[in-house]
């Protein structure tokens, strides 16, 4: 996936390759073809005229129209992906409640978030390194497994989250980070995202030439620029 001459760790190379291939495989609530189309849609969102107009508007709900998108996904799913990709800071609970229906439940939502955010990690690194985006993963045959975490608990979040101890690690934060718990309704979604994410960042003993404090500063600044709600 990356040229050999780039100074990227073997762990990162392997993780990104594994995650990219996994996107093309059937998940728990979408087929491999649908998951590949999610990446296609997320990429299209960056040049979508409707998304650009909404971004400039006082409220995204004030602008209507059709998205620039060549995926085969439903219009509602395309709208969800485009909003998550281009304007995540203005997503609301009222908007989220409108997404949930008999055809699209909280488990589906978590899987979409996992696939889209995983693709963003990989695409962003390609762009940062001056590389063309990776070809879309090849969609593999297979049907969704339908597995979810029946022990997920309602803690007032938009979706049920992973039940976990509240004990703290040496760095003063929970041993099980809240970002892990947030996708805990669908364990495969957690695995996909954190396989790609883990080589980039750690709360302790970070294996980079910069210090932990410097890494935290970079992470906080990038999150702010990206309007990360979390």
Q: What would your notes on this structure say?
A:
It is built from nine helices and no strands. By secondary structure, it is mostly helical. The mean pLDDT is 91.
Supply database-style keywords.
230 residues; mainly alpha; 9 helices; 0% strand
What's the overall average pLDDT, rounded?
A: 91
Largest sheet: none
Q: Number of helix segments?
A: 9
Helix content: 40-55%
Quote the beta fraction. under 5%
| Coarse structural class | mainly alpha
Shape: globular
Q: What order do the helices and strands follow?
A: HHHHHHHHH
Q: What is the radius of gyration? A: 18 Å
Low-confidence stretches: none
- Count of DSSP E strands? 0
In whole angstroms, how far apart are the ends? 29 Å
Provide a compact summary of the structure.
The chain has 230 residues and is mainly α. The chain has nine helices and no strands.
Task: Present the secondary structure layout.
Blueprint: H1 10-23, H2 32-45, H3 49-56, H4 75-86, H5 93-99, H6 106-128, H7 178-182, H8 187-197, H9 212-225
């Amino acid at each position: 996936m990356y040229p050999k001459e780039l100074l990227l760790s073997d762990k990162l190379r392997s993780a990104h390759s594994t995650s990219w291939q996994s996107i093309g495989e059937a998940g728990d609530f979408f087929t491999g073809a649908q998951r590949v189309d999610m990446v296609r849609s997320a990429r299209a969102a960056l040049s979508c005229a409707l998304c650009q107009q909404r971004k400039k508007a006082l409220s995204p709900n004030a602008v209507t129209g059709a998205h620039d998108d060549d995926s085969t996904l439903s219009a509602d799913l395309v709208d969800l992906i485009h909003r998550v990709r281009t304007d995540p800071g203005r997503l609301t609970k009222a908007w989220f409640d409108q997404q949930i229906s008999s055809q699209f439940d909280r488990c589906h939502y978590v899987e979409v978030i996992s696939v889209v955010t995983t693709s963003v990690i990989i695409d962003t690194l390609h762009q940062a390194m001056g590389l063309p985006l990776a070809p879309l993963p090849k969609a593999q045959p297979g049907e969704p497994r339908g597995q979810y975490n029946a022990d997920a608990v309602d803690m007032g979040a938009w979706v049920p989250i992973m039940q976990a101890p509240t004990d703290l690690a040496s760095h003063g934060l929970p041993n099980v980070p809240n970002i892990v718990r947030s996708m805990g309704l669908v364990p495969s979604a957690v695995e996909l995202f954190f396989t790609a994410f883990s080589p980039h960042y750690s709360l302790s003993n970070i294996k980079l030439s910069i210090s932990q404090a410097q890494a935290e500063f970079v992470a906080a600044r990038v999150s702010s620029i990206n309007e990360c709600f979390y």
